[in-house]
Structure formats: structure tokens, C-alpha cells
């Protein structure tokens, strides 16, 4: 894994290991105090678990730190069992020294050495099982391609090959290099076309032998598109993107973010999305029954409508809705193009004749959008974010700056949704609201939009 994402995943793993260590110590105490004591009545009775609290306070926070210092969390994919045991043994020596220091200097006692021995064996087994499961999960994700990040390399072929050779096996396994664009000979438009075609989330500049002006032009194209640019330089001025530093293969990289960067807030947003989707699914079940029954009784055709929409970085996904139009709606769209009320690539008309009456009711109160909660559960959408557009409409976008709305997950609701949606006829204004959301994103802003969505849905304001 790369950069900040690796740091967050490492912290999550260490928190998990701390929980495992705490549980292991409690189970070890229970085995010694109750199970073994019942089988061997002559064993010495050990003190209550409260006497072990200081051991817990040392073992739980410090063991993951010592394991990290021994490289226990590095190179997970290719690590052998022998190497893991060796690293754990090194951490155990450090932990023993730390506990010994508390015993010597503070006169604290280890209440039961047998409990500690059981805990060492049990903790080691559980940590190795966690590691094996995580390794297997990561390998399966990499094999399926779901965990690989689409990237482009920009620079000379020689520089790109040199950069790839400097990466670890794990880093290379998690990158899906969709191509190498030689920006010394190819125009920047070739890089932009490759970003569109390959749905990349990052362009890595391997540009030791590229003129600075060419790099600057290419970085500005990435900035406009909302795609991260990773370069080993610190001399660019940008108007939108926020520069931060990261590390790749031991090299200091200057990263230009024109979208929210990986952070604990984004991790929490994803958790809120999944939990919120489950809660809304349960609460909205009566509306699902009404919608399905009404569609069956008032129109011929399937209950659900599926359409390929553009997700984050333009990656297509299948979005679900309750069907609100007649089954031949797509075939009739070309005949209605002349009545389009929205400028730009988007097609929208008021009182669309393809919508059947009950479908109009579903749209008025946004009930037709409920199946997208499954898209949120699957990680394709968020509760809050720019509304996903059909792939064919995205392909008609002419201004590259408007594609920056694709740099975050699409959402069920957004600023456009709570600002009178169909009252906005200008696509530029719509995109401006999406970019305002991206540039000012925070968990509080998401909460505000969700709170504004509820009364807007109840009033049916701005609906089709």
C-alpha cells in the first residue's frame, strides 16, 4: 500500500492487535484461574484479575509499537511464518525488558507467571492467525483486481522502469499501471485521454529527464481533472490543488490534491455510509413495499431500473432505481432531445411524458432513489456526493474542469439536490455546486446536507 493509506491501514491493524492482546490476556487469566484450577485443585490460587491491570496497561499499547519496530507489519504478502516468529520473538524480548523495568523500579509484581506464559502462546497464535487471514484476504483482493489502484506513469520509459524497479513487491502488486505516457514526446492531451479511458486515480511522474515546463503542464491537467499527481519536485504553483508531502519507495514526493485526501475523516465517512445505508434500508422497507406494489399495478415491466453510471474517476458501475418510466423510455429519449431544458451534456425535461403517474409520485418524494442504498453498501456510492451521471452524458462533457466532479464518490444527495435541483437549468451552475462541495468537504458539511435533504424530500421540492 502507498503513502497515507498505508499509514491508516497500519494504525487500524495495530488497534485490532491491541484488542486481540487485551482479550488474550483475559482469556489466559480465565484458563488459569478457573479451567486449570478445576482440573488441578492443588494449584496455587491466583489473585483477582484487577491485579493484572498494570500488565494490561503495558502489554496492550506497547506490543504493537514493538512489533512495528521489528518490521512485523511490513511486506505482508511475501512474509514467511519463520520471519513472523522471529519478529515476534524480538518484540517479546523488548516487552520483557519493559515489564522487568516496572518490576524493578516500581516494585510491581507479576501476579501469575503461568498466566503470562499462557498469554504469550495464545497471543502469538491469535496474531499469526490474524496475519494469515489478512494476507489471504489481501491476496484474494489483488487476484480479483478489486484492491489494485489504476495509475498512469508519466515520463520517459527509462525513468518509469527505474521507478517501478525501486518499489517493493507489495507496492507493485497494489498498482495497476494502465500505461506509460512519455511526456517528452507525446502531447499532454494524450495523458488526458489516457486518464479518461483508463479511469485512473493517480498519475505518478517518473520525470528525472523531463523539462520542468512539460511537467508543470501535465500537473495542471491532472489538477483540472481532479486526479492526484505524484511527483518528486517542489516548484509548482497551483490555484486549486493543495500540495502535501508523501513518500514512495523512499523518495520524497510532492502530492497535489484538488480533492479531499485520505484521512481518518474519510474513513469515518465510509463507515457512516455503510451503517447509514443499513439503517435507511430497514426504516424504508414499508416504502419499498408500496413502491413495488404500485409499479406492478400501474405499469408493465420490471420493478427496478438499472443504468450504467460513471462513478469515482469515471469508473462505470450499475446504478439501481425503482422504475418510474415506461419500458421503452430509452428508445424515446432521442425524440425528446429537442425539449431538453438543461444546457450541456445532461438531458432533463419537466413533465417528462415517459414517466407514468405512479412513477411521478415516486420521483416527487425521491422514493425511486431508495435502491441506491445498495450501491452505497457495495461502496460504489456515498450518502452525500455529486449525483452520478450516465456514462454517455459524461462522455459528452467538453470542459475538462467539469470532470473534477468525478474525483469523489457519487452520492444519494448533494448540494444540487437540496438547492432546488430541477430549478437549476445551467449545467455550469450544477457543476459549480459539486466543486464547492468537493473543495469545502467535511463531515459537518455532509451532516448539514443530509439534514437539509429530509425536509426537501418531504416537501418534494425541485423533484421531477
**Poorly predicted sequence stretches spanning 5 or more consecutive residues:** none
How many helices? The count is 16
Shape: globular
Strand order of the largest sheet: 2-1-3-4-6-5
Class from secondary-structure proportions:
alpha/beta
Q: What distance lies between the first and last C-alpha atoms, to the nearest angstrom?
A: 44 Å
Mean of the pLDDT scores?
87
Tell me the Rg in angstroms.
28 Å
Helix percentage range: 40-55%
**Percent range for β-strand residues:** 5-15%
Query: What is the H/E order?
Result: HHHHEHHEHEHEEEHHEEHHHEHEHH
Number of strands: 10
| Biggest pleated-sheet summary | 6 strands, mixed
How many separate structural domains? 3
How is this structure best described in words?
It is a single chain. With 464 residues, this protein is of the alpha/beta class. The strands form 3 sheets. A 6-stranded mixed sheet has the order 2-1-3-4-6-5. The model has no long low-confidence stretch (mean pLDDT 87). It has helices at 3-39, 53-69, 81-106, 113-144, 157-165, 169-173, 188-198, 212-225, 264-283, 285-298, 329-336, 357-364, 372-377, 391-394, 427-439, 443-459; strands at residues 149-155, 175-181, 202-206, 228-231, 242-248, 251-257, 304-310, 316-322, 382-384, 411-413. The chain is built from 16 helices and 10 strands. 52% of the residues lie in helices and 12% in strands. It has 3 domains: 3-144, no CATH class; 149-257, Rossmann fold, CATH 3.40.50; 264-459, no CATH class.
